[in-house]
Amino acid sequence: MHKNKIVIIIMAKFASIITLIFAALFLFAAFETPSIVEAQRLCDRPSKTWSGVCGNNSACKNQCINLEGARHGSCNYANPTHKCICFFSC
């Protein structure tokens, strides 16, 4: 009978510790401020410095960023061929 009381006391303490851990995690999660990132709208236009057909996305991107001050660049199909398109903040 004495062993049963000890087991119950140990289980009660264990349950209290688990409850305390979950409460701490809940409070931590509740006070964590979510970071809201505003999506920037991008406008596109053909590169002013690229010549010829665009077949290398990386080169187009580097040229748009470094030479034209764009945020991004990629080769896109613009009838009748692939052109280097630069993307700027609107």
From TrEMBL:
- The domain of life for this entry's organism is Eukaryota
Question: What keywords tag this UniProt record?
Answer: Antimicrobial, Disulfide bond, Fungicide, Plant defense, Secreted, Signal
Checking InterPro entries in the record gives:
Defensin_plant, Knottins, Scorpion_toxin-like_sf
Q: Provide the primary localization.
A: secreted
In this protein, which residues make up the domain named Knottins-like?
A: 42-90
Q: One Pfam family, short name please?
A: Gamma-thionin
Subcellular localization(s) per the UniProt record: Secreted
Q: Which family does it belong to?
A: Belongs to the DEFL family.
| Record protein name field | Defensin-like protein 1
Task: Name the source organism.
Answer: Camelina sativa (False flax)
